Amino acid sequence: MVECFRADLMEVDFVERNGDTWTEKYRPKDLASISHQEEVVAMLQNALKGKDLPHLLFYGPPGTGKTSAALAFCHELFPSKAVFKDRVLEMNASDDRGIAAVREKITFFSRRAVSTAAKNMPSFKIIILDEVDAMTKVAQSAMRRIIEDCSGTTRFILICNYVSRLFAPIVSRCAKFRFKPLPKEAQAERLHTICENENTKVSVDELHALVERSEGDLRRAVGSLQAMAPILQHANADERAEYFLPSYNPQLVETIVRSIKKSKTSEIIDLSKRVSKECSGVNFFKVLFDQLLDEDVINNKNIGQIGKLVSLCEKRILDGCDLQRNLLDFMLNLRTTL
Which CDD domains match (predicted)? Predict the structure, then answer.
């Protein structure tokens, strides 16, 4: 290791299961292990004491602990494996999307009678529906009715990245909790702990580069680390550097900065198409904004306007809009602003 983290910076309590992917093997097993989501954890811990729970909506960027928090809560609420299996249904809406899944699988589970054998446990079941923003409009309409009809026996924990894609009637029936992006240092520390457990040698600089490349998604970073681990054992310095390159090309960013004022509209359109093929994610607009600052393109007069443009483009990306169209809109508006 080029540099070492202090071992006491983060206490990590992980599920250890041989044969699992690292994302599952190192998934937090209890609420106390969910880091940097204090409000959500406090609410769930209070719910454990009172054995009462409203419908919940967890939303926020990917890889911030939404699914882990839901599963950890259910495992603490139903510690017996048999009871957990009987009381908890986890579905991924991106795999089982559509009205058939809603009417059949979810409806059957939510209306099934609760076993009375389990003592000192709440009387309701829990359905964890992940990536619910991927459900069709028809499926969401059916989901609203199911939530209304089954509230006496079932609680829903809905999980999504983009709350703006959900029907307002569904959102209004849930207690909303936003999961904050994890600090970069905390992500790097978690990756470092995994490297130590897996006897994988990765430098601090490489871990930070991996965090940047993963754009705040810790699950993605852990998956990438596992995929690269066997290769890194035999890679030389140049090969290792290539694996940890950022998810954007710095030269393309510089090209955009140089071309904004000088290029014709048709050239900017072509450039936006080229850039969108090689770059991805919200992080690209932040990098572009930082580059504009470094090149002294932004001054005290226009920094507010350009900042609003960047924020608008980031929001559109999070809401699922096309990167190329957002980039083109940003570049054309920026040319007018400068």
Answer: AAA, HLD_clamp_RFC
